[in-house]
Amino acid sequence: MCYYAGKPYKLHYACVPCRVAFKRHPGRGEHRCPRCSESMACAGHDFAAPRRRDTRAWSAVAAVLGAGLRYEGREACGCGKEPKFRPRTRAQLRARRIAASRTGTPLAEMLGRADP
Q1: Which of 13, 33, 52, 80 holds its CA 20 to 30 A away from the CA of 41?
Q2: Are 22 and 55 a contacting pair, CB within 8 Å?
Q3: Separation CA 111–CA 1 (nearest Å)
Q4: Residue 21 pLDDT
Q5: Residue 61: how many CB atoms within 10 A of its CB?
Q6: pLDDT given for residue 98 in this prediction
Q7: Are the beta carbons of 112 and 69 closer than 8 angstroms?
């Protein structure tokens, strides 16, 4: 079943300092946060924002977006892959940072693995 086919699908954009996320159409320019006017990071199609008061979950989101990863998984038509793993808690994030430093693997690659 196609999830994204037939209509222009909006991307999720997140402002980590304000802990908010919005869906916007991808455009030529950058998207600004309506609260702080800073540039928002593109979080991808499959991003599920944590609650605003959950600062621990937002710290994991900040690490994932800071590493240059997005919450993607499906191809443009939606028929392809399952959503990829991204750490949701600080414990998962800490385990992947330790494993990356031990093995010498780049952090961005280690954050995408389900098992460190």
Answers
A1: 80
A2: no
A3: 28
A4: 95
A5: 25
A6: 94
A7: yes
Query: Cα separation of 66 and 10, whole Å?
Result: 21
Q: Is 27 helix (H, G, I), strand (E, B) or coil?
A: coil
Low-confidence ranges of the chain (pLDDT < 50): 1-2
65 within 8 A of 14, measured Cβ to Cβ: yes
86 close to 71: Cβ distance less than 8 angstroms = yes
**pLDDT given at position 41:** 93
What integer pLDDT is reported at residue 1 of this predicted model?
40
**pLDDT of res. 3:** 54
CA distance 103 to 86: 19
Give the sign of the dihedral formed by CA 9, CA 14, CA 18, CA 31: negative
pLDDT for 9 equals 77
Supply 105's token pair. 């693997």
What is the Cα–Cα distance from 100 to 85, expressed in whole angstroms?
A: 16
